[in-house]
Amino acid sequence: MKINSNIQGMISQTILSRNEAKLSVSTERMSSGYKINKSKDNPAGMAISNRMRAQLKSLDRANKNAQNAVSAVQTAEGAMSEIEEMLQRMNELAIKSSNGTMTSEDRKAIQEEVDQLTSEIARVSKSATFNSQGLLDGSQALKAYTQKSDTLTVRGYNELFDADDYQVSFDANGRVSLTKGAAHDPVQITSQDVVPFTDKDDNITGYSTTVHTVDGGEITIDLKGSAAVADVDMKVTGLGGMKIQVGAEEGQEIRMVIPEVSLKTLNLIDLNGDRTIDCRTQEGSKKAIERINSAIDYVSAARSKVGAYQNRVENTISNLDITTENLTQSYSVIKDIDMAEGMVDYTRLQVLVQAGTTMLSQANEQPQQALQLLQ
For 183-209, what is each residue's pLDDT tens digit? Predict the structure, then answer.
């Protein structure tokens, strides 16, 4: 029996301190809901869960990006729908004006409404915006330009047309030939759609020619005037459109190219800016019917393209939701505490701490028994 060294008390104190420390960790886990609160709890698990958490936040942001893209597409599609409605009304008026029972005064009144509808189409095209970015004015089309030429303008092209330096030549009938790159290699053209621009007197003022290449590329080039043009430099940049970040990594994006829908692309004005729909005469009304129907076809094709973008982005949102759900489940397995298991451990440690306190009290009383030997 010793009084200077209370070995049993020291053992009880050591075990009690360890259990109190474990109880403190268990309390922290039960309070926070996480089984990893500090890197020392699980160094590897902490590193993995932090990467997962960063990816989850990125996916959440990408999901919101995609939702904004859907809103932008819906805005563009809504504006196109209004333009198409106005074109349908213009077509109805042109058909009405082409009837022989109409007087000149009737056709004058019809033309006034047609002019107002044309002005409204121009306004809608310019005012259709999302977050201050134009949607139908060509801002979201792919960019290209001609150098040192006042007669040629690139109206638009699709994603399959290669970005490069070209030389363009027009013949007197509006047909195009193209060469590509520094070596001026001929571009293999499968077909061309030539649409002449005419004024109110049916005089040709230029051409709009869509070229189709063997690899599926398309480009539309406007020629102002009816004279042949040779070897005009053209730069196709491949830039433009909205690039929607729909993933957590670089390059995970969707490009949305929204066609320009304006009086020019609808062929409602010529290359000089003069309006081409003239319903003041029966002959002019008949020509207007064909021109307006062509404009309706253009808007319908543009709406179809925008609708395809919307479907794609909505599918992307669904995929992001599923990915986020699965990643969250994996994150939870690593990071979150099982409350039932945690409560069992917490209760066990509470009992051990209480038992340790009792045993330490008993161990501290044993040296006092040495006093009985002195009696």
Answer: 999 999 999 999 888 776 778 888 989
Give the residue among 119, 156, 122, 146 at the shortest CA–CA distance from 301: 156
Complete DSSP assignment for 78-93:
HHHHHHHHHHHHHHHH
**Phi, psi (rounded to 5 degrees) for 186:** -65, 140
Q: What is the pLDDT of residues 103-130, one digit of tens each?
A: 999 999 999 999 999 999 999 999 999 9
Quote the crossing angle between the two packed helices 104-127 and 43-97, to the nearest 10°: 170
Cα 306 from Cα 130, distance rounded (Å): 15
Which residues face 145 on adjacent strands? 235
Strand-strand pairing, 204-213 and 142-146:
unpaired
Structure tokens belonging to residue 12: 């009880």
Give the integer Cα–Cα distance in Å for 286 and 345: 88
What is this structure's pTM? 0.79
Contact in structure between 160 and 216 (CB atoms under 8 Å): yes
Helix 43-97 / helix 282-335 crossing angle, nearest 10 deg:
170
Ramachandran angles phi, psi of 102, nearest 5°:
-80, 140
Amino acid identity for residue 236 in this structure = V
Element (H, E) at 192: strand 189-198
